[in-house]
Design goal:
Blueprint: H1 2-60, E1 69-74, H2 78-90, E2 99-107, E3 110-119, E4 134-141, E5 146-153, E6 159-167, E7 172-180, E8 184-191, E9 194-202
Antiparallel strand pairs: 1-2, 2-3, 3-4, 4-5, 5-6, 6-7, 7-8, 8-9
Length: about 210
């Protein structure tokens, strides 16, 4: 009987110890789990921020090796107006646009202006300025100066194209022009509106 009581006491003591240990480790496990969950949550939030920054960076700053073009519509800015005023001082046939479309190229961690296309409106007959079925003018810009590139056509009678540049050192507005019609074409160079060179050529076949 005495031995039975001792055994029973040992069993009760073991069960109580086991229960307390289980509760302790469960609470410890829950506490550690909460810490782990908190750490994972913080890491997830940081990753979300990093991913968001990467997305913004990929939009604002294209990857190396990828050509990125950005287009904007607007009006001539101050420097473009000044350049066009110098051009029209000697070559009034270049028309002022109603608006412009700018094209930017992404290079060396920033956007650079590459082209300014002049926008014109057609009349009810589909002609520009009542004469030209086709009339195109663009400004191309390098690091130093502007260059105006033009081309237009009045049909079989006359088509012309060329470039106009401004030399800020000599203050010269230089135009290189080529025009042709039915049977002949002419190349010419002008400096400040004064012709410096001309060469005409007859075509073997009628255009």
């Amino acid at each position: 009987m005495k031995n039975l009581l001792v055994i029973t006491g040992i069993l009760i003591s073991f069960i109580c110890s086991w229960s307390l240990s289980k509760a302790y480790y469960q609470s410890k496990s829950e506490e550690e789990s909460a810490i782990v969950i908190q750490e994972l949550t913080e890491k997830y939030q940081k990753m979300k921020v990093i991913d968001s920054l990467k997305i913004v960076a990929s939009i604002e700053k294209p990857q190396i090796g990828i050509t990125c073009i950005k287009n904007e519509d607007g009006s001539l800015n101050k420097s473009e107006k000044e350049f066009l005023d110098k051009v029209k001082k000697y070559y009034s046939d270049i028309e002022v646009p109603i608006s412009v479309s700018r094209k930017f190229i992404y290079e060396n961690d920033e956007y650079h202006l590459e082209q300014v296309a002049f926008n014109y409106s057609e009349d009810d007959n589909g002609l520009y300025f009542g004469t030209y079925p086709y009339y195109n003018v663009e400004i191309k810009k390098d690091t130093q100066t502007y260059e105006l590139v033009y081309s237009n056509s009045a049909g079989r009678a006359l088509t012309s194209f060329g470039t106009i540049t401004y030399n800020s050192m000599t203050e010269e507005v230089i135009r290189v022009d080529y025009n042709f019609g039915t049977g002949a074409g002419t190349s010419a160079i002008y400096v400040n509106g004064i012709q410096q060179y001309e060469k005409s050529e007859q075509f073997d076949t009628i255009y």
